Amino acid sequence: MARFTTFRFCLDPTVEQEAALRRHAGAARFGYNQCLRLVKQALDGKQRGTVGKVPWSGFDLINSFNAWKCSADAGRVLVAAADGTTTVQATGLAWRAQVCQQVFEEAAVDLGRGLAAYTGSRTGGRKGRRVGFPRFKSKMRAPLSFRLRNKTSGGRAGIRVGGQAPRTVSMPGVGTVAVREDTRRLRRMIGKGRAKILSATVGHRAGRWWVSLTCQTADLHETSRHEPDGGAGWVGVDRGLAAFVVAARADGTPVLRVDDPPRPARTGMARQCRLARAVTRKQPGSRNRREAVARLGRHHARIRAIRQRFLHQVSNQLVKTHDRLAIETLTITGMLANRHLAAAVADAAWAELARQIGYKQQWRGGRLTLADRWYPSTKTCASCRAVAQAMALSQRTFACQACGYQADRDLNAAVNLAIWAEQHDAQVRDLHAGGPVTNARRGEGSGPRTRAGETSPDDAGTPSAPAGARRGRPRRALSHHSNEL
Ligand SMILES: [Zn+2]
Questions:
Q1: Prediction pTM value
Q2: Which of these ranges, 129-133, 412-416, 426-430, has the smallest mean pLDDT?
Q3: 410 C-alpha to center of ligand 1: Å?
Q4: Ligand 1 centroid distance, CA of 379 (Å)
Q5: CB neighbours of 361 closer than 8 A, spacing ≥ 6?
Q6: Domains, in order of start, for the chain
């Protein structure tokens, strides 16, 4: 079992449960801030030469916090004895018993990650944008969120699904909370030993409470996975603005064309402007302002949902039928600097599409490769390989000056990407594994192939067979209809 996936459910808490959720989210914020305070105090002490070790890792931070929460620093009372003398008694953090203690531990782990990112960024061990020193989480602005690990005590897991009623999730400290979606798929997988809940992250977003259950699950069933080297060669995938996705083989056969993507940010722009204007018109700090902000937040959540649904559709279509995909490396940051293109580029969410294709291909034992960044996939002739002059974005047809070949601009680019992948097949590296590609399945000679512990096609939710072929009932084509993300 090495596949990680998340099941997300919308919570439907009672009034008491909602209070418990808020309490835990508040405790997580408090724990994080207190750990940060301990780090800063230790850093100050180190400067003055009084304190030796500064807690930096999640493990050290947990220990520091646990020592602090029982100490007199966290809470103390004055006790007067009968003879008139008073003594200070350490009570520790007074309200600590009201929340599950794991909330503090996970908050400490989060801060440890933040500190590690800061160190890595400063020493050059971490790529990407510079990471600053962690800051305190504001009570007013920080999103409500906390995480619990699934600890087993007495053979009983702390986080359970469908314990009392099918549509419930039980968590330590919070209790059994109703959820809005069906949990059957996850319950079945757990029941058959094909999934194990590792942790639960609860958050408040767009006016609702959500729980994300991170699971370690069995590999996809064989029928949902690609045959090793069983495909018909590489498929190039060109992402663009005119056509969202054009996919083609090296011999020029077009395999997929998605022309009309939803552009939710563009369609919703008028509404977004109105809602944003409404926010600025309200008195800062007022209840009206808070409600206007919430309305704007719900609008953004809706845009995200529309976009994600579409991207899952496209990525599923691609990974189900093609075991080897090649995409180009896009310098999206550069394109976002162009103010005429920025909004459309951001709306297209190409990076998210690449991410989805990446992990879905890995689940299915397929391959995904990034073409060389300087490979001129648009300017090259797919027929005679001559490289032409740069084309304006408005020019939709590629016409070769050397051989007279004419093709749709995006199709030509997709074919070129497939050709690139065919040529570089031997040295192509897997995008996610970061090394030479191996099929996720067992190789020859590693013992009998067993099907135990594998997910059945029904559980997998992303079948490769045509609709209704296996069980005689219509299949859901999209995995995101269920909650597996
Ligand atoms: Zn040509």
A1: 0.78
A2: 426-430
A3: 15
A4: 10
A5: 319, 323, 325, 367, 368
A6: 26-123 (no CATH), 232-264+304-440 (3.30.420)
